[in-house]
Design goal:
The complex is a heterodimer of chains A (366) and B (438). Chain A folds into two domains: 2-236, P-loop containing nucleotide triphosphate hydrolases (Rossmann fold), CATH 3.40.50.300; 244-365, RNA polymerase II/Efflux pump adaptor protein, barrel-sandwich hybrid domain (OB fold (Dihydrolipoamide Acetyltransferase, E2P)), CATH 2.40.50.100. Chain A has nine helices and 19 strands. Chain A has helices at 2-7, 50-58, 100-109, 115-128, 144-156, 174-191, 202-208, 226-231, 236-241; strands spanning 9-19, 25-35, 39-43, 65-70, 73-74, 85-88, 162-166, 194-199, 211-216, 219-224, 246-256, 259-264, 269-274, 283-288, 305-316, 320-327, 330-338, 351-356, 361-365. In chain A, the strands form four sheets. Chain A has a six-stranded mixed β-sheet with strand order 6-7-8-3-9-10, with helices on both faces. In chain A, strands 11-12-13-19-14 form a five-stranded mixed beta barrel. Chain B has three domains: 2-69, no CATH class; 76-208, no CATH class; 214-434, Orthogonal Bundle (MetI-like fold), CATH 1.10.3720. Chain B has helices at residues 8-12, 27-67, 90-98, 107-123, 126-136, 140-149, 158-165, 172-181, 188-193, 214-245, 248-263, 266-277, 282-289, 305-328, 333-341, 346-374, 378-383, 391-400, 405-429; strands at 76-78, 85-87, 196-198, 204-206. In chain B, β3 and β4 form a beta hairpin. The radius of gyration of chain B is 32 Å and the shape is extended. The two termini of chain B are 40 Å apart. Classes of the chains: A alpha+beta (366), B mainly alpha (438). Chain A binds chain B through residues 58-60, 79-87, 89-91, 93, 95-97, 106-107, 110-111, 154-155, 158, 164, and chain B through 332, 334-335, 337-346, 348-349, 352-353, 356-357.
Chain lengths: 366, 438
């Protein structure tokens, strides 16, 4: 089993540690394997070590300890220009003194490719990102989105097997960002390249990736496909970081395999699914997604756990209603309901009863 | 938009291009009037600076340029006390007008000279007139003062009487010089500044080889300035790069070290180089005491070109560092990283990606250092010795010692012209908009 996973691993981090000052570890004991063709996103708050990991992979930082392998070969001592990894930078890093075509031609030129072949490849790469007519322009004459496409084309033009992207969409506006998210994933899958993508935007991570590695405090907190990450977070950091989340604090009263009873701080006892809590008496953080909470009695499912709540705010958002409630002492309890024709609209001050299924309610570490 | 609409007249199509305001005035006029207040205020704000520049920069330079072609030493005398201006050498000037160049001076010429000498004696201008002639023909001043002293006793025939005083009065070159000097405007100072002179027939020739100094000095100034510019570039580029890549707190500290020379008097810096470089100086002592040099074989680093080169390179270094730093600081390190990730070696990444982006700073720094070096005065004067002098030292010599201000002005004008020419060349080759001074 271990052997087979090693065989189809394309990128491997083994026990990698990184320190800049010799006192603090920025990356702590990182283990990660990435099969060929996968789109992996490193997601995390700033300072979580994700960019450092990317820079170590690209060769701009050296690992303090551990081994990084590319296609089975340790690359710790290979300089960046010999790694053959395409990279897209946050600010695009298009060379301002060269035209777009010269920018794209640069990686081919340093590889000693002939002129006609270069021109052909540059043209193909420009067509790939639908920027064929822009070869003669300078980067400063392009918009942010266009520069982004060129940066992508330049990272791909020399046909690398691995492409790294460091928050490439950070500078774009929302609409353009969504469009580029789609285009990047489409290109990556069509060309069959392995991609490591770094972002702090969880929507980007969820929509684009095959798997997401959530970084915090120099460690991977969870490495899983997007749906698993969202629906089954392994600890309270992941639950908080991915998507919107309601948290109630309490103590484990009883724990039994797949079920746990948590006594909330205001005395209420609820049924939960224990995730990383193990003992009776342990502090726990109960997490429930806002869209899994129901207040309409007609729609509540059999076996739902109900609890009293007070409406503090009701916000009409068009497609959904967003309601802020006071639940078990927590005044930031949010629920989201779809704007259906028969949906009841609430008013601030109203006292209601809300309910959720126990399996949607995760008891996580405090 | 609200107060500028098409007038009805424009709508029917009499003058379709002319836009007018709502009450029918032409739009352009209305705009001018609206902006005139702001323009007046802007002008008033810059007026003091404009006046200052006119008074302290444009006028003196204009005067200097004028002086390089205009000298009244042989045409007018101004009394220092009363300020009264008297024309001098009028008779001789008349004779020059009536007889063309090359005519042998006859009795009439000497009679005119004798009459003029009497005037010179009366207004005490013999020294001034003699000095003017002396600029172009040395040894002439004493002839004039001597002749003027005896002017009253001269009797016809004047030719014999004057030649009796000094045989040199027959020298055709003297008469050529006097003819040129009898007009206030002359290009002869430019000829002198280029080691040229006129012969008795008025043809331009080179001066004697042992008196050719200026062209050689211009060449040396140009050569030393280029070497200094190049040395500051070589030294400043790595420093500027270091400053630009270090974290701001550290680079600010280092920047203070770079700027420290600015805060010290130029004189102090230059003299401290003298302490370091002289043959009994710190550097030589250190080399001797470590046994690298024999005691009787000390390096001559002072009072020669080496001294000028070393001291000026150090003094002008910040002028290269600052423009380089200012272009390097905003260059994002991701450019070089991008180049490396695209397969370039660190040398290729530097050559193809980093270096081209610093060119505007190199241009600015080189231009700045070069122009400063070409006109540098105090350092070469102190540490240059005989063969480390630059053209500005000679300009100063003519300003202060020989008092030949016209020649000094001609030399300075040539220097200014040369710099403007280089500036123009730079603009043609690199483009002045690519200059980045900070």
């Amino acid at each position: 089993m271990a052997n087979s996973s090693r065989n189809n691993a394309f990128v491997e981090f083994e026990r990698v540690q990184k320190s800049y000052d010799g006192e603090n570890l920025v990356v702590k004991d990182l283990n990660l394997t990435l099969p060929k063709g996968e789109f992996l996103t490193m997601l995390g708050p700033s300072g979580s070590g994700k960019t450092t990991c990317l820079m170590m992979l690209a060769g701009f930082e050296t690992a303090t300890h551990g081994d990084i392998r590319l296609d089975g070969v340790s690359i710790n001592n290979i300089p960046p220009h010999k790694r053959g990894i395409g990279m897209v930078f946050q600010n695009y890093a298009l060379f301002p003194h060269m035209t777009i075509a010269e920018n794209l031609s640069f990686p081919l030129e340093v590889r000693g490719m002939g002129k006609s072949e270069r021109e052909q490849k540059v043209k193909r790469a420009l067509d790939m990102v639908e920027m064929g007519a822009f070869g003669g322009r300078r980067p400063s004459q392009l918009s942010g989105g266009q520069q982004q496409r060129i940066a992508l084309a330049r990272a791909l033009v020399f046909e690398p097997e691995l492409v790294l992207m460091d928050e490439p969409l950070g500078a774009l506006d929302k609409q353009l960002r969504e469009k580029m998210q789609f285009e990047i994933t489409r290109l990556a899958h069509n060309l069959g390249i392995t991609t490591v993508y770094v972002t702090h935007d969880q929507t980007e991570a969820l929509t684009m990736s095959d798997r997401v590695a959530v970084f915090n405090d120099g460690r991977i907190q969870q490495l899983a496909p997007p749906n698993e990450l969202y629906e089954a977070p392994v600890n309270s950091f992941v639950a908080q970081f991915i998507g919107e989340n309601n948290t109630l604090e309490g103590t484990i009263k009883e724990i039994n395999g797949n079920q746990a009873l948590v006594q909330l701080d205001d005395g209420e006892v609820i049924h939960c699914k224990p995730v990383n809590v193990y003992k009776t008496g342990e502090r726990a953080r109960v997490s429930i997604r806002p869209e899994r909470v129901e207040y309409n009695k007609d729609r509540m499912q059999e076996g739902a756990h109900t609890i009293k709540a007070e409406v503090l705010e009701f916000i009409y958002m068009g497609d959904i209603f967003r309601t802020r409630l006071k639940v078990a002492g927590n005044e930031e309890f949010i629920i989201k309901t779809r704007n259906a024709p028969d949906q009841v609209r609430l008013q601030a001050g109203q006292l209601i009863e809300i309910g959720w299924m126990p399996e949607d309610c995760h008891a996580l570490d405090a | 938009m609200s107060d500028a609409t098409l007038s009805p007249a424009a709508m029917v199509g009499t003058t379709p291009e002319q836009l007018t305001t709502a009450d029918g005035k032409p739009l352009k006029q209305a705009l001018m009037r609206a902006q005139s207040h702001a323009r007046r205020r802007a002008f008033l704000l810059v007026a003091p600076l404009l006046a200052f520049i006119l008074l302290t920069f444009v006028m003196p330079i204009g005067q200097m340029l004028h002086r390089s072609v205009h000298n009244e030493g042989f045409t007018w005398h101004e009394d220092v006390a009363s300020g009264q201006r008297t024309p001098i050498m009028t008779n001789l000037s008349q004779w020059f007008d009536q007889n063309e160049l090359g005519t042998e001076p006859d009795e009439a010429a000497f009679a005119a000279l004798a009459a003029d000498l009497i005037v010179l004696r009366e207004v005490k201008a013999a020294g001034q007139a003699g000095t003017r002639i002396n600029y172009e023909r040395s040894g002439s001043r004493s002839m004039f003062t001597k002749a003027a002293r005896r002017a009253q006793r001269l009797e016809a025939p004047y030719k014999e009487a004057i030649v009796d005083l000094d045989e040199d009065w027959l020298d055709p070159d003297l008469w050529r010089v006097m003819r040129d000097a009898s007009s206030s405007y002359t290009a002869n100072f430019y000829l002198a500044a280029l080691d040229r002179t006129k012969d008795a027939d008025g043809n331009v020739t080179q001066v004697n080889e042992n008196r050719q100094v200026y062209v050689k000095l211009f060449q040396r100034t140009l050569f030393l300035s280029i070497v200094i510019t190049f040395m500051t570039f070589i030294l400043a580029y790595p420093i500027a790069h270091l400053l630009a890549t270090l974290p701001l707190a550290k680079s600010n500290l280092l920047m203070i070290l770079v700027l420290l020379p600015f805060w010290t008097s130029l004189l102090v810096r230059t003299t401290s180089w003298m302490v370091l470089l002289q043959s009994q100086g710190v550097v030589n002592d250190a080399l001797v005491s470590t046994g690298i040099l024999a005691d009787d074989n000390r390096l001559e680093m002072m009072y020669n070109q080496a001294g000028t080169l070393i001291a000026m390179t150090h003094i002008l270094l910040p002028f290269m560092v600052l423009p380089l730093y200012s272009v390097m600081r905003p260059i994002n390190p991701s450019y070089v990283r991008a180049a490396r990730s695209l397969g370039a070696t660190s040398w290729t990444a530097f050559r193809r990606v980093y270096f081209p982006q610093t060119v505007p700073g190199i241009g600015a720094g080189a231009l700045l250092v070069f122009i400063l070096a070409v006109g540098y005065y105090i350092t070469p004067a102190l540490v240059g010795g005989a063969d480390g002098q630059l053209i500005s030292n000679l300009i100063a010599f003519h300003m202060q010692n020989s008092l030949n201000w016209s020649l000094a002005a001609a030399l300075a004008a040539l220097l200014l012209g040369g710099i403007l020419l280089l500036y123009w060349l730079y603009d043609r080759l690199v483009g002045i908009d690519n200059l980045k001074l900070g």
